[in-house]
Amino acid sequence: MPEVIFNGPAGRLEGRYQPAADKHAPIAMILHPHPQFGGTMNNKIIYDLFYMFQQRGFTTLRFNFRSIGRSQGDFDHGIGELSDAASALDWVQSLHPESRACWVAGYSFGAWIGMQLLMRRPEIEGFMSIAPQPNTYDFAFLAPCPSSGLIIHGSEDRVAPPTAVQGLVEKLHLQKGILITQKTMEGANHFFQGQEDALIENCSDYLDARLRGELVPEVIKKLK
Questions:
Q1: Span 168-188, mean pLDDT?
Q2: pLDDT at 219
Q3: Could you give the CA distance from residue 79 to residue 180 in angstroms, rounded to a whole number?
């Protein structure tokens, strides 16, 4: 798992990167929680998601947003962090120009950034939003959401109440051409304390189903 430093819009960005053996392998980028509340690329959930994708043959990247670890710059309330994510994806794609697709997975603040990146990059064909916070961040930009994905959260989340997440999911369910899979983990809080392994198992099950061609609208299957 090479340590990497690459150029971002506000200076250097620090990451961990694992290339796949297959030059056509899809790319997965993992986005960490809020930089001002202890979020880093070494968060256990981010770390485990990284290996989940890597074990399935993805070229995988996680990195620190600006101001965290050895990443330069100052916290920018999501605007600069979205630019960081776009630069990170550009960097890994420059090393893997023959990669056939991309996924993005984000946790909490990272879920918000990941969904914004999804809107800007048509090559992103799948996403995982873990404990998104529609009560805190505006997700109105998902009009329409261009890709199918997983939204997973806890029934005991006090940071992002289940009713708020449910409202987001219901809006996305109205959109055509995508399939949003929702999973509510009973008893889990925003940090999935004591349930980290179960979280990764749920994410793994979803990813494996997608890799088998499941959990996408029939029209997508026909196109493929």
A1: 96
A2: 53
A3: 26
Q: List CB contacts of 36: < 8 A, sequence separation 6 or more.
A: 75
pLDDT given for residue 20 in this prediction: 97
Nearest C-alpha neighbor of 177 from the set 147, 207, 210, 155 = 147
Residue 2 per-residue DSSP state: -
Structure tokens at 77: 């309330």
Per DSSP, the residues of 3-29 read: EEEEEETTEEEEEEEE--SSTTPPEEE
Q: How far apart are the first and last CA of the chain?
A: 33
171: CB partners within 8 A, 6+ apart: 142
Q: Rounded to an integer, what distance in angstroms lies between the CA atom of residue 179 and that of residue 147?
A: 8
Chain segment 142-161, per-residue pLDDT in tens: 989 999 999 999 999 999 99
Per-residue DSSP letters for 43-109?
A: -HHHHHHHHHHHTTT-EEEEEPPTTSTT--S---TTHHHHHHHHHHHHHHHHH-TT---EEEEEETH
The whole-angstrom distance between residue 63's C-alpha and the CA centroid of its chain comes to 12
Q: Looking at residue 16, what is its pLDDT?
A: 98
3-state helix, strand, coil split of the chain in percent (to 5) is 35, 20, 45
